[in-house]
Each structure stands twice: as C-alpha cells, then as structure tokens.
Amino acid sequence: MILDDEPDFPGPLAGILAGLRACNGTHLLVVPCDMPQVDAELLLLLVDQARSLPAKVCLVRAGEQWQPLLTVIPSALLPDLQLAWSLGQRSPLRWLLNQPHAIVQLDLDDPRLCNANTPAQWLMES
C-alpha cells in the first residue's frame, strides 16, 4: 500500500502522484476502490491499450462520462504531474486530459463501472 504524504485529504490526484513516485515499471494501473465490479477483462483491455500506445494515458469513458480513476498512466509522466501538482492542479481528469491519451470506450450502463459508496451498495454489488 502506498500512502500520499500530503496533510488532510487533498484528493485522488495525490494518491496517483504517490503511486507514480513508487512505480518501478513503465506504467501505473489506477483502479478506484469503490468499483467492486471492475473485472480482469476490463483491466486487461486497459493494459492492452497501454501496450499498444505506450506513450499515452489510457482512459475509460462510459458514454460521455469519464472514469478518470480507472486508467493506465506511463510512469514517464511523473515530472509533468509533479509540476502540475506544485502549480495547484488537483483534478485527475483535467490533468489526464491534458496528456496524450487514448480512450477505452464502454457503454454508459456498463455494470463494471458501478460506483459503490455506501455499505448497502457494496452488499448489492457483491
């Protein structure tokens, strides 16, 4: 487990930055903790996209809705993220869309993207 070193809770971009700092490989796979239906097939789709376009961020979009916390990020983008962070960037989506990127397009109602934020939703999803 990697923790960000920021006080309070500055948001998920701090976690992505900490993950990139700790990354020993060429890419960082980011998976949100509140999507219990994400499966290996979807993760492999993202990883395959990253392999075919190694210099690009691979993002998921369902319909027109972005899923910025389900992504593959080239570790070479660490300096850019560090600079953006130091300049006050806190939005993962804004930062990711400013990078060269590819899109894994899914249906708007893809059940793998169900967001579970309450205990009741987790019970329904399991």
From TrEMBL:
Q: Where is the MobA-like NTP transferase domain?
A: 3-96
Please name the SUPFAM superfamilies in this protein's record.
Nucleotide-diphospho-sugar transferases
A Pfam family matched in the record? NTP_transf_3
For this UniProt record, the keywords arranged alphabetically read as follows: Cytoplasm, GTP-binding, Magnesium, Metal-binding, Molybdenum cofactor biosynthesis, Nucleotide-binding, Transferase
InterPro entries noted in UniProt: MobA-like_NTP_Trfase (IPR025877), Molybde_CF_guanTrfase (IPR013482), Nucleotide-diphossugar_trans (IPR029044)
Q: Which PANTHER family does the annotation name?
A: MOLYBDENUM COFACTOR GUANYLYLTRANSFERASE
Report the protein name in the record: MobA-like NTP transferase domain-containing protein
- Give the species this sequence originates from: Halopseudomonas salina
